[in-house]
Amino acid sequence: MNNLAPFPLLSLIIWLPTLGALLVLFFQDEERIKTVALTTALADFAVSLFLLAWWVNDGSMQFQEMVAWVPNLGINYHLGVDGISLFLVLLTTLLGPIVVLFSWRNVKDHLKTFMFLLLVQQTGMLGVFLALDLVVFFIFWEFTLIPMYFLIGRWGGKNRVYAAVKFFLYTMAGSALMLVVILILGWQGGSFDWMQLQGLKMPLSLQTWAFLAFALAFAIKIPLFPFHTWLPDAHVQAPTAGSVILAGVLLKMGSYGFMRFNLPLFPESTQLYAPLLAFLAMVGIIYGALVALVQKDVKSLVAYSSIAHLGFVMLGVASLTKQGLSGAVLQGVNHGLATGALFLMVGMIYDRRHTRLFSEYGGLWKQIPVWSAFFIIVVLASVGLPGLNGFVGEFTILVGTFQANPWWAAVATLGVILAAWYLLTAVRKMIFGPLDEEKNGSLLDLNAREIAVLVPLVLLFFFIGLYPNFFLDKINPAVDVLLQTVQSSPPPF
Amino acid sequence: MNVSDIIRLLSPELILLITGFVVIGVDLARRREDEGRTAAAVAVVGLILAALAAIFLYFSSPNQIVFYTMAIDLYGLFFKVAAFIGVALVIIASVNYMAGRSKFLGEFYALLVFAALAISVLVSATNLILIYIGIEFLSITSYILTGFLRGNERSEEAAIKYFLYGASAGAILLFGMSLLFGLTGTTDLAAVGKALEAGGDMHWLGLVALVLVLAGLGYKASLVPFHQWAPDTYDGAPTPISAFLSTASKAAGFAIVGRVFLVAFSDFHPEWTQVLAAIAVLTMFLGNLTALKQKSVKRMLAYSSIGQAGYILLGLVAVSNDPTFGGVNGLMIYLFGYIFTNVGAFLLLLPIEKKSGGSTDMEQFDGLATRAPGLALLMSLFLISLAGIPPTAGFIGKFYVFASVINQRMIVLGALAAVNTVIAAFYYLNVIRHMYFAESAVEGGVTVGRGLMTVLAINAIMVLAIGIFAQFFMTWVNSSLALVTASGF
Which residue in A11, A127, A192, A388 could disulfide with A381, CB within 3.0 to 4.6 Å? Predict the structure, then answer.
């Protein structure tokens, strides 16, 4: 195996949170628990920055690790990172300390278990992004269900149990067939290794089924219309930290899965079904936006906006162009940052007023200007204002989509307009107008901890928006490699 | 073969035989004083010695046939070790449970030791007569154990159902065997296999015999449609006995079905693949769909263990020469993990029953996470393993069995099995939901005795160890594949 890392950096990134989670179990004092959790999450983020420091910009799989795990079966603990997964890993390690810090005061019930689950969840998600063996990938993929199930079901809103069960079963249903296909690939290719399975020649009918089974698992996760019905329940009912992780990272596991597995492993089927994916993505963009428009609850609005935004990401993937795919990677990160921030801000206001209905708010600018200013910036980033991150991602996707099919780009542009409409309406309803609810007159503005939670995200909005090449330079070579793999197999028809 | 060789090769059986009688004797002497504790301790020591003897034999790789009827081979020894461990765990967990419930504690433990002996004979048997004797021996001990709670109607009903069904199954088995003897003129499995291979025009009659033998043996493994006794028996039997019947006894059923089919019916491989595939699909769907609507956790586990039998059978459906996914090795690793998982899940009902006075309804699990966090965590682990979610033994077993099926190009069958794991996840998850998310209607913690806690801890450690160190256990399973008689596989 080439490119083996001299030092198991990726393993350290994956398992450090678990180590912290186990440490947490030994403490009783709440302050200590929080400190340990935050320290581990920050340390993990710091360690993950070494990926950037030692990055080589050639589109290859880097920092690879390979240890035989079950040699009888040819299952290897094989890890690696390339331009497609790099920023998703960094996004995950960044959101880790942010959600720990956010939960500092608002989680009172079973804090120890909560922190344990948050940290273990980190391990699962990082494993998904870094695993290059299909079985190891599947194990991490399934494992991410368990902590999130408990996070939603235990610390969520009124309807939390229903939401948790629905979340679990939807994903489980999607991934059961994926396991069958992984076994089929192992049988056909004689290996579960992602690198060796590329270029595997399968009969087209088998490849089609394999593609569809993987696509189902990932489409449910993204979620692509019409597999989205679990998302509003899960996102709205989850505790804020859970919503941030769900929207910020878990959904990206779906779009990442498409890029990492569907495209290079089933190139013919990908080219055959790309228009279908694009169609579903467009339906999601318009549908998500229209439903978001009529929401009375700000958290539901953010949840439905995720369907629309992820539709955008998938449209970029389905365009099968360089710009489309690069934009999809970047926009995945952007959505994680912006929607994560939106959920955090909604959580902050909810903790103060215990309602999320638009009708209860209005005129907040006069009472809590700092929150309002942050909210406006986050919304503008999400809308795609030039100079902020959302613009770069959406623009790149639109360029790529236009090359594939101008009509797709037209529909997507309509989605951008709708996004501006519902998000700015939210700003109007929350922040402007008269401050006529009496209870809002006594609202307290953000404290230092809450500002500390938001500042890194906002700085990144500007950094990505003003200096996108720092990111695109690292994404592009990997996308080139990926596209070569896809295009080296001509479409069957 | 001289006497000392025979004693060495049959040492596990001899140890169990002596242990059984010693247990009764000890109990006669000390019955009043300690509520069967000494008897149980003697039984456990005997089982451990027998397991050690089997392991010792395993390393000397004997592959010999004793008395022309018992194959001391690695395949049989594997199942012996697994079953002895399972029975020992059940006995340790029974001590507190049985103490107040029965006067005949010595007999209870002695019968469990004899049941282990029956399993030990059965999994080695290579002769139709001995197979029949083994099955009947195991059945009779099981009937008594099932009905052991005298005066408890459900326990008695369970025993009667099991007895009536077992008696009919025994008759069918015997009829099938008589056909085989008529066709081939021998009762030796390997000779039967050779004769069936040679004789052309009696093929269809051989098929009839195959179906009859499957019906007679399949009931031990609770395969649909030979399962009707299982839900009521698992539900009504004393809970430790439910754990025994659904694991060690079931494993013995699979072991002997495997041996008979691989050795005697190897010529019928194309036919029985289809028959067993249909049975596996029926078993999975019936078990899992019926488990969905159960209100009692014990009854849910009863149906779940029928569903599990369907997955296990897939290993036999997909049997092949493949060194990695040969099918039988999948069946064996699945069963080995399943013994620890299912024994754990059933035994976890004991403290719940004690607290509630016998009920294992879902409501009794409400809020268990706050009342007894350790128990809730263990139960979740066992349920996650039953659902086949990594990193547990259940995942490794399912992975192996499914992979074997797919390597035999039975993709639809693999997909149906995968669909079943989703159905099953629903009801396993439901218990976790009750434990963690529901408000408790019952007050106060749940107490667990030291013996039971040890057993549950051993089960939990094994469930995780098989999941994580799969390589170690698979190496062992793969080297246990040797059937003493050369068969077509």
Answer: A388
Separation in Å, CA of A125 to nearest CA in chain B: 15
Residue of A394, A392, A415 whose CA lies nearest to A282: A415
- Chain B residues in contact with A69 by the CB 8 A cut-off are 470-471
Q: For residues A240 and A244, what is the distance between their CA atoms, to the nearest angstrom?
A: 6
**Contact status of A283 with chain B (Cβ, < 8 Å):** no
Name the E strands within B24-125: 64-66, 70-72
At A242, list the tokens.
Answer: 């859970």
Can you give the C-alpha Rg of chain B in angstroms?
21
| Token digits of residue A231 | 């998302």
Q: Give the list of residues 6+ apart from residue B68 with CB closer than 8 angstroms, or none.
A: B127, B188
Number of Cβ pairs < 8 A linking chain A and chain B: 88
Residue A25, chain B, CB below 8 Å: the answer is: no
For residue B486, is pLDDT > 60?
A: no
Q: Which residues contact A358 (CB under 8 A, 6 or more apart)?
A: A296, A297, A298, A426, A429, A430
Could you tell me which of A1, A142, A377, A207 has the C-alpha nearest to residue B391?
A: A142
Max CA separation in chain A (angstroms): 70
Q: Is the Cβ–Cβ distance between B111 and B85 less than 8 Å?
A: no
A138 at B interface, C-beta within 8 A: yes
Full-prediction pTM beyond 0.80? yes
What is the tens place of the pLDDT at every residue in B285-322? 999 999 999 999 999 999 999 999 999 999 999 988 77
Query: How many structural domains comprise chain B?
Result: 2
Alpha-carbon distance of B269 to B265, in angstroms, equals: 7
Whole domain around residue B137: which residue ranges?
1-263
Is A209 within 8 Å of chain B by CB?
Answer: yes
B249 with B335, same domain? no
Print burial letters for A307-327: b (CB count within 10 Å at least 16), e (below 16).
Answer: bbbbbbbbbbbbbbbbbbbbb
Say yes or no: B339 and B410 in one domain. Answer: yes
CB-based contacts of A406, cutoff 8 Å, min separation 6? none
CB B422 to CB A184 under 8 A? no
Calculate the average pLDDT of chain A.
Answer: 88
Same domain, B245 and B348: no
B211/B278 same-domain check: no
Given the cut 0.90, state whether the ipTM is greater than it. no
What's B348's DSSP letter?
T
Q: Which of B263, B293, B327 is at the close of a domain?
A: B263
Q: Is A309 on the interface with B (CB under 8 A)?
A: no
- Please state the length of chain B: 489
Please give the mean pLDDT across all residues of chain B.
Answer: 90
Which of B4, B10, B8, B46 has its CA nearest to residue B25? Answer: B46
Query: B186 and B62 share a domain?
Result: yes
| Same domain, yes or no: B151 and B167 | yes
Bridge partners of B72?
B64
Query: End-to-end distance of chain B based on CA atoms, in angstroms?
Result: 28
Give the β-pairing of A75-81 and A62-70: antiparallel
B37 and B9, same structural domain? yes
Same domain, B242 and B290: no
